Amino acid sequence: MTRAHLSALLSALCITVLAACSDRTDTAQERDISDEQVTQETSPSGENSRVYDEPVRETENTSLTGDMEQDSAVMQQLLRQMRMQLGTASADHPEQCKLLPIGEKPCGGPERFLLYSEQGVRDEAQLIKLAEQYTDLSREFNRIHQMVSDCQVLVQPAVTVRDGVCMPIETAIY
């Protein structure tokens, strides 16, 4: 076999492996699970990018069916409900800023953290209840659909207040 043949074969193998991995990655994106460690409802400049004024509706169906599309829709609805509870992340002191771990990676540990403020949250008890429900369903989703992940452990970042808004502080990992 020539060097050109080996190179072409290796390229084809890499594309096949990457294509197989992308199927699993796409399903995580369908569930609105980003690679970001912290989800917050403010823009990078600190301005509120979303304010949810619509009433919070209970999720009608919070059980999974085994159909990936329907199950993803249930997960997305719960995530929307949590975001509606977040309100604005305005705060006077860093102690008012909180991080809530949500979801569960297939290897364990949270998928992400939601950043919110005690001042801005609409109903903290309801937010925590929704987060627990989302995490339970995330665990079940991973099991039913045989999900895989990078198994990277997310480190809970520190938070601060910048211009009256809760913001994560980048955490260096050595």
Describe this entry's structure for a reader.
It is a single chain. The protein has 174 residues and is of the alpha+beta class. The chain has one domain (31-169). The chain contains 3 helices and 5 strands, in the order αβαββαββ. The protein has a 3-stranded mixed beta sheet with strand order 1-3-2, covered by helices on one side. It has a two-stranded antiparallel sheet with strand order 4-5. A hairpin with a 2-residue loop joins β4 (158-162) and β5. 29% of the residues are buried. The model is unreliable at 4-37 and 40-59 (pLDDT under 50).
Mean pLDDT: 74
Number of contiguous helices = 3
Overall number of structural domains: 1
Secondary-structure element order, N to C: HEHEEHEE
Q: Which stretches are poorly predicted, pLDDT < 50 over at least 5 residues?
A: 4-37, 40-59
Strand order of the largest sheet: 1-3-2
How large is the share of residues in beta strands?
Answer: 5-15%
Using DSSP, what is the number of strands?
5
User: What is the helix content?
Assistant: 25-40%
| Gap between N and C termini | 44 Å
Counting helices, strands and paired strands, the structural category is alpha+beta
Shape summary: globular
> What's the gyration radius in Å?
19 Å
In this structure, how is the largest beta sheet organized?
Answer: 3 strands, mixed
Question: What oligomeric assembly is this protein in?
Answer: single chain
